[in-house]
Fold these 2 entries.
Entry 1:
Amino acid sequence: MHFTEYHTRLAAYAVIVDDSDRILLTWFNGTKRDAPCWSLPGGGVEYDETVEQAVIREVREETGYDVVLHEPLVVHSFTAPSEPDRPLPFKSVRVVYRATITGGTLGTLEVGGSTDFAEWKPLDLDAAEPRADIVDVAIKAHLAR
């Protein structure tokens, strides 16, 4: 399929793990397609910003922390068919970076957005905890490095 025949969403996320083997996650409050769940700090890359700028901005908005980025851990993508409210098929490309906190204070700065709060969770997150698939993708990449 030619790239003009589907929509693409580019997103960037951060894996932030502290010395106690806790990962910083954000609570996604849900949409008509997705139920509320834990996710990584991050999100869509705006048209006028780089992938790196996007993840730094998103982490700040969703967690209150300033970060420095390190190497990308994984690039993950998936596709979805068209739907009534999305007439073209969809491709999501997600770049996940390792990051370190350099300042700020825990607390979501986003108002009226998709993130309600951020919280440190055990890296071996309970299987019963609802979470976006990108969390498992990122943890696996983090542990493999």
Entry 2:
Amino acid sequence: MNPQDTAAALLPLLGGAGNVRAVGHCMTRLRVEVADREPVRGAELRALPGVLGVVEDGESFQIVLGPGTVARVAPELERLVAAGSEKRSGPGSGVGEGDGAVAAALAARGAALRAERRARNATPGKIFLRRLAQIFVPLIPALVGCGVIAGLGGLLADLHWLPALVPALSAIASGFMSLIAVFVGYQTAKEFGGTPVLGGAVAAVIVYPGVAHVAVFGRQLAPGQGGVLGALGAALLGTVVEKACRRVVPEALDVLVTPFLTVLLPGLVTLYGLMFVAGEVSSAIGRCAEWLLANGGAVAGFALGGLFLPLVMLGLHQALIPIHTTLIAERGSTVLLPILAMAGAGQVGAALAVHVRSAGDASVRKVIRSALPAGLLGIGEPLIYGVSLPLGRPFATACVGGAFGGAFVGLSHQLGETVGATAIGPSGWALFPLLAGNHGPARAIAVYGAGLAVGYGTGFLATYLFGVREGAVAETG
């Protein structure tokens, strides 16, 4: 199905244009917020060709379409939703007084049901993780692009090729990362109901070079101190101040006083407290990650690699982005990402074993072959929702493969061979250009590649021996 047909097929299954409140997407998932879950036909959504899985998250649906496809379907769905909204609100809609009363009653009932479900799902943990994802997911394409450019620049520098081009690549790759606090502040204010540009303005204080002339607790501040955590806190505080001003400042003065106070007060708090505290927390995260892997790398790697697939399945893995970004800002690379990437290796190994064991089922083998390239690049949702999760046991054995791969990389760190990623986004084979280590990129690549091999092999063996019971594939198909 082409993107237009896919969007057209999705819309009625989501309850129509009137039921869709917002459309967004990440690398593999179409994220649709609906007004009412009742008209959403979940079973038919899952059965739609091209849909690899559906995750229900409160009042939103995460529809797994895979990389590339989701970026083309999302704008088509937005266009159909907008067209449907204009058609309903335009002249000649034919809504009379009686129809209006019925619509109002239905709207009230829907609002009550939404409030009930919202209260049931509004646990602090879920809300926090969901909002973190909404802040950072839009930044992933830039993180990926700049990370790949940085990897290319590092490779050219190591090989002493095109030396005149290396500084240009470094500038292009570093520009976004040097200002990431501004983008985080913008997204934070947007997510929490403030004016996005004011959130960016408050967070920009963190990266301004002039903060080096400000002393706090007898110590000079450093530009960028506090990183993305400081930007989150600054923008959130700015949103609180802005909302308070909107309530008390007279309308005639609002355009002048509210922006002034929204930038000034949180800016002062950021300079004289938040940057210092967030900087200490960021440093502590880096020290904790290093200590954990240096003293218990094998155990920590086993746990992280084994538990990451369930996080991906639930869409909660995006909440780790601030930690990765903080580690990159503090240490130059994130040592957690190469370990977590082993979960994808276990998934690939498990899928290969299912492919071998399902020799008589052409449909399952076709799904595996179509999803395998994305899996090798570290995008696991197509294999999760198309293969392992529907079969049940292969999902568990894929986690086993990820655990052993993570244990290998963690043990290498414990033995003194550090492997980190200089950017986030890619995984699997796509992570090779972004690897760095304490003994150079070549050894880091070798350790990471060996970890992938362990994950592939363990996931394959565990699934081949224990993950596919006789007749399970046929029953699922």
